[in-house]
Amino acid sequence: MDKSSIGNWRERLRHYTWWELTIFAIGSISLLTVLFMLFFPLGSGPSDFTATAAVPPVSSPEFVNMLSDSLTLPARQGDPITILNNGDAFLKSFLTDIDGANSSINIMVYIWTGGKMSDQVLEHLDTKLKQGIPVRIIIDAYGSKTNQPTEQFKVFKDLGGKISTFHSFTIAPWDFTKNEVRNHRRAIVIDGNIGYTGGMTISDPWLGNAGSPKEYRDMMFRTTGPMVHDIQGMFSELWTSMTGELLVGDAFYPKITPAQQKNALVYIPLASVPSPDSLVMQKFVLLSLLGAQQKIYITTPYFLPDLSFRTALINKAKAGMDVRVLVPNEHNDTPSLRFASRYWYEELLQAGVKIYEYQPTFIHSKSIIIDGGWSIIGSANMDNRSRKLNDEDIFGISDKTFGQALENIFLQDLTQAKQIDLTEWGKRSVWERIRELFDQKFVQQY
Predict the structure, then answer these.
(1) What is the DSSP string of 48-107?
(2) Which of 80, 122, 262, 401 has minimal Cβ neighbours within 10 Å of its Cβ?
(3) How far is CA 130 from the centre of its chain?
(4) What does each of the 446 residues of the chain score in pLDDT, given as a tens digit?
(5) Are 278 and 88 in contact (CB under 8 A)?
(6) Rounded distance, CA 314 to CA 10, Å?
(7) For residue 77, which of 275, 281, 348, 262 has the smallest C-alpha distance?
(8) What is Dmax (Cα atoms) for the chain?
């Protein structure tokens, strides 16, 4: 740049005050930061994985030991798990457990919005607060960014209830990437001996029984005994980091009596936190897929498998295994994500993976059932955020009774789904193909 050009720039800058230039600089930095976050592979790690030896079959005791040892996660025995299909079943059970609470109520959900569901839950919580039962709530700043029940929350707080919001938004450029990290966990605990996890939240789309497009299809899982201590820990970990309050004592971790160990199942808990160095969520699911010998059934609202997951599914299907994936159709809360998901359909279909789109409403259920005896449940989706960016909680369950129950639900859901035919899929429009390619470029944000 010559001296005359420099002089012209200086002359132009003199027309602006220092504070106008400062605002412009901050805006430019913020824009560049946003663009960086949209396209840079945040939380990146290896694009592909190789195993040094064959992964044991998921049906074998060796698999549970291998998963526990390699990820430094405990393998424990737990009580039977009750599957609650859709909002009406969950809400009825949840409100009954709230009403029976004697020592503590802890609730962590990603979304909490005002409406009929919120009103019912808060009415029952307020009653317990008046009885002297402490209640704590964690919500996520992004998930609960709109339509919070402000007035009802104020009444709740005035009665002594505690609410903490995970990662409130910041516009500071030096702290902007913090907005990317979300708390997506579901962890609800009553008296330290009743626990819930799954996909539901406190919001009206989760009401009903998936009887219309306005009522989401989803599942929650209720348990007692040892697993509840893990769910409590998943809540307590983030509660302490946000409030400084350490939750200890019998109100949160009561002793587990031997009677609760009857008909025990084996499980491995995982409370994941964002870390591009450990990728523990990624490895947990990938090792499970690699341990399949017969069939893999996946239900997920957001299907964005990375290279390692796609390779595992493709290889298993090519080996003659029954690999099925159930995802939403146009009843979807994120249309761009659906197009990004469809970008991978052809590759998977050609390998023999069967893909189904649920028709009646938005299916928000999250489960993986492998060989009818190893199941993965919890808050995680099959997308980049759950693998690498969000705080999530999942459980690997080794139990044929539970696996069979979950598999039966999967097969029942398939009766209301449309299977994607490879030949028909190849006839989709140019516009759809362009949209898939475009939306797939934002895969790091889904």
Answers:
(1) S---SSPPPPTTSHHHHHHHHHHHT---EEE---EEEEHHHHHHHHHHHHHHT-SS-EEE
(2) 262
(3) 33
(4) 455 555 565 666 566 676 666 766 666 666 555 555 555 555 566 777 888 999 999 999 999 999 999 999 999 999 999 999 999 999 999 999 999 999 999 999 999 999 999 999 999 999 999 999 999 999 999 889 889 999 999 999 999 999 999 976 555 554 555 556 789 999 999 999 999 999 999 999 999 999 999 999 999 999 999 999 999 999 999 999 999 999 999 999 999 865 456 678 999 999 988 776 778 999 999 999 999 999 999 999 999 999 999 999 999 999 999 999 999 999 988 888 899 999 999 999 999 999 999 999 999 999 999 999 999 999 999 988 888 889 999 999 999 999 999 999 999 999 999 999 999 999 999 999 999 888 888 766 65
(5) no
(6) 60
(7) 262
(8) 87
**Complete domains list, the chain, with CATH:** 49-75+271-446 (3.30.870.10), 79-263 (3.30.870.10)
Is 136 within 8 Å of 105 (Cβ atoms)?
Answer: yes
Q: Where are the beta strands (DSSP E) in 218-334?
A: 219-224, 265-272, 295-299, 322-328
Beta bridge partners of 198: 220
Whole-model pTM?
0.89
